[in-house]
Amino acid sequence: MKTKIETDIIVAGTGPAGLTAALALAQAGFSVALAGPPLAAGDRRTTALMKPSLDFLDRLGLLDAIRPQAAPLRAMRIADATARLLRGPTVTFRAAEIGEEMFGMNIPNAHLNAVLDKAVKDTAAIRPLGALVRRWTPGEDAIEAELENGDTVVARLAAAADGRRSPARAAAGISVKSWQTGQSALVLNFAHARAHDDISTEFHTEDGPFTQVPLPGMRSSLVWVTRRRRADELAAVSDEALSAMIEARMQSMLGRVAVEPGRQVFPLSSALPARFADRRIALVGEAAHVFPPIGAQGLNLGIRDAEDLARVAKSHAADPGAKAALAAYDRARRPDILARASAVDMLNRSLLSGLLPAQAARALGLSVLRITPPLRAFFMREGLRTGGGLAGLMPWR
Ligand SMILES: Cc1cc2nc3c(=O)[nH]c(=O)nc-3n(C[C@H](O)[C@H](O)[C@H](O)COP(=O)(O)OP(=O)(O)OC[C@H]3O[C@@H](n4cnc5c(N)ncnc54)[C@H](O)[C@@H]3O)c2cc1C
To answer: What residue's CA is closest to ligand 1, atom 3?
Structure first.
């Protein structure tokens, strides 16, 4: 028998952004129906979440469960490993320089998703549907979602956290600009002989950044962004050969390296929609922004989407899907998403570019950052939250 479910808000997508949005909207006082598949195992990536994201997860009551498997990030180092004519110096950013204990934490995705999933199941205001949405029908006063099992959901607002291909975004009539740079990320975890001291190091190479991020103990995760063919080749070499390559790329700063089983390769792409909400549908997570994993931005933005959507919905509680509410959400998200997307794209292109002006700008930028503590502090605060850099320069604001 087909069921018709009435709810305040339907969230589509059971990835980390959708689970966080469902929890945030439930905490804001709404009834939530959550469409999407059951929790999938097998994501062996880790996610670096910055302090503001962790603070928000703490307000959702999740940080104590996350912490035991997470590693703190107390410093971030950028090293120019290009063989370009113009190279920048190594720059280290320390959280203590801006009065913070840490920039954030690196968390295994499997653990983060399991914590979010359990919290969703423990929240009475969230109804997990266990099925995907087959068809969306946005209307004047409500939006209807037909599920793959034949049930229908009627809601005032839909949060589309249904990933980079987002069927809900298409139903909202929102166009997307997508582009590719021909890169993939090889992702793996590895053990090492020397302590990482809670420092993450990003090596800039001509093919993209090679980023080591601490895990608890004498382990780290690696996101090695490189040309697509090279990533596939690297995924196929023996453990011994790959361990030696990683140790060499890191100039043995962590001593001997031993890669763990379970390498994964992610082809990279970028996408930005023309609007972030329309026709009772608000975009959240990768439905709203896709870019390469540089500077740990993706899910941090996705969590800010969830935070802003819950805040805007609460201030339009009578009808969280009304035009005024969607316009407020679009206004709230636009500067943050565009700033992050363009910064990531610019840095990535400056690495790939063989042009001297691009190399000069990057090398000069790193040199200036190295010798100018207030500028470093600005970028550290800005890295944590858009506008945070300015707020740090004007602490009275
Ligand atoms: C190698 C790599 C490293 C990264 N590292 C970091 C990092 O350190 N820090 C960081 O902040 N970000 C990082 N990111 C980005 C981060 O992983 C993504 O932003 C995040 O996973 C996106 O989550 P999401 O929930 O938006 O999308 P997804 O995880 O793709 O979830 C989409 C969900 O929608 C569901 N769905 C699809 N269609 C429907 C439908 N019709 N109905 C209902 N549900 C549907 C899918 O089944 C899925 O559950 C990294 C990304 C990569 C590739």
So the answer is: 293
Q: Is the CB of 270 under 6 A from ligand 1?
A: no
Q: What is the pLDDT of residues 302-359, one digit of tens each?
A: 999 999 999 999 999 999 999 999 999 999 999 999 988 887 777 767 666 665 566 6
Residues 6+ apart with CB under 8 A from 362: 80, 86, 88, 204, 347, 350, 351
**What pTM did the predictor assign?**
0.91
Q: 13 CB under 6 A from ligand 1? A: yes
Q: Which of 45, 281, 301 best tests ligand 1's pocket when mutated (most atoms within 8 Å of CB)?
A: 45
In the block, which residue shows the tokens 């950028």? 78
**Distance (Å, whole) CA 259 – CA 245:** 10
Q: How would DSSP label each residue in 198-249?
A: TEEEEEEETTEEEEEEEETTTEEEEEEEEEHHHHHHHHHS-HHHHHHHHHHH
pLDDT in tens, 178-215: 998 899 999 999 999 999 999 999 888 888 889 999 99
Residue 70 CA, chain-centre distance (Å), reads 16
CB of residue 167 inside a 6 A radius of ligand 1: yes
Beta bridge partner(s), residue 50 = 104
